[in-house]
Amino acid sequence: KVKIFSDGKCVEEEVVKYNNFKWTWCKINDTEQGTKKYYKCSFKRGSNCPAKIYLLFHASNFEVTLFQAIIQHDHRTVSKQTGIPFEVKNVIIELFQNGYTTPKAILSELDKRKIIQPKASQISSFLVTLRRKFYGPAQIGLNHIKNWCIEKSIIPNDPDQCFVANYYIKDGDADPLFRLFVTTKNLMKNCLNSNHVCADATYKLIWQGYPVLMVGTTDKQCAFHPFGIALCINEQTTDFEFIFKSVQLTVEKLYKINYCPTILVADASGAIANGFVNVFNVIEKRIMCWFHVTKNIDIQLNAIKDKK
Question: What's the topology of domain 3-68?
Answer without folding.
Answer: N-terminal domain of TfIIb (2.20.25)
